[in-house]
Amino acid sequence: MDLGISGRKAIVCGASAGLGRGTARALVLDGAEVLIVARDPERLSKAAAELSAETQRPVAHLAADVTTEAGRDAVLAAFSDPDILVNNAGGPPVGDFRDWDRDAWIRAIDANMLSAIFFIRAVIDGMIARRFGRIVNITSYMVKAPAAFLGLSNGARAGLTGFVGGLARDVASHGVTINNVLPGQFDTDRLRSNHARQAEASGRDFEVVRAQAIRAIPAGRLGTPDEFGAMCAFLCSAQAGFITGQNILLDGGQVQGLL
To answer: Is the pLDDT of residue 87 over 90?
Structure first.
């Protein structure tokens, strides 16, 4: 399927690895002009070179912290008037809410709620003027099935979800869509790190923790960044113009619910 995004300008945040990189790869393969953004310049440069070599297309990259105003400004100065924005930031620490002070909550809200909102604010009027825009926020399946140890993430991402629900319907008539994609357990560095912390905290072996997590997924496996990227790319397509304000689960059937 031709997604109708050849030549469209796309910013993909958190794209040096994992789900962001999988999304960037899918967009590049579908002909988009992609800028990948992450904080680690060495890792990001390596990712850009590998993606370019694989796809035989140029992949621009810029090291920036998009959870800060300066970082977002630097991205837009280098790559103005994007048609597509994929918001993606690493989740806050896991733990017990009794140990999280106000600063911990503010950091989580800044990273996983406000940074996306301010990035949306910076690009959406241009999208409206051009009568085309696609915004995808990578959140978490925990928005629908929250777990206590991920309370910082649950709270911040739920706030972003509520905000998007209203804004998406306000801009839909202008050819701009905003959707959230809720990943379940994908085979990424972030998930491996979470499993390692759970193993250490419980005194169990890492492979035991990982196997238990996989058993909870009806699909019987972890997701891959490439299949996640394919969904995000479709939501960014010309064909997805009638999908907006949605929270789309990619979880292998793990969340047990109809809505």
So the answer is: yes
Task: Give the pLDDT score at 198.
Answer: 84
Could you tell me where the beta strands, DSSP code E, fall in the chain? 9-13, 33-38, 60-63, 84-87, 133-138, 176-183, 247-250
The answer to whether 170 and 212 have CB atoms below 8 angstroms apart is: no
Q: Is the pLDDT of residue 64 over 90?
A: yes
Rounded Cα distance between 234 and 154, Å, is: 26
Task: Kindly compute the dihedral angle of the four CA atoms of residues 145, 151, 152, 156, in this order, to the nearest 10 degrees.
Answer: 40
Judged on CB neighbours under 10 Å (0-12, 13-18, 19+), 63 is middle
- For residue 233 the two structure tokens come to 């790319």
Task: Give the type of residue at 43.
Answer: R
Report the C-alpha gap between 10 and 79 in whole angstroms: 9
> Residue 179: which of 81, 90, 248, 128 has the closest Cα?
248
Model pLDDT for residues 158-167, shown as the tens digit of each residue = 999 999 999 9
Closest CA to 194 of 119, 92, 65, 114: 92
Question: Which tokens go with 118?
Answer: 């301010």
243: DSSP letter: -
* CA dist., res. 57 & res. 51, Å (int): 8
Q: Are 172 and 182 in contact (CB under 8 A)?
A: no
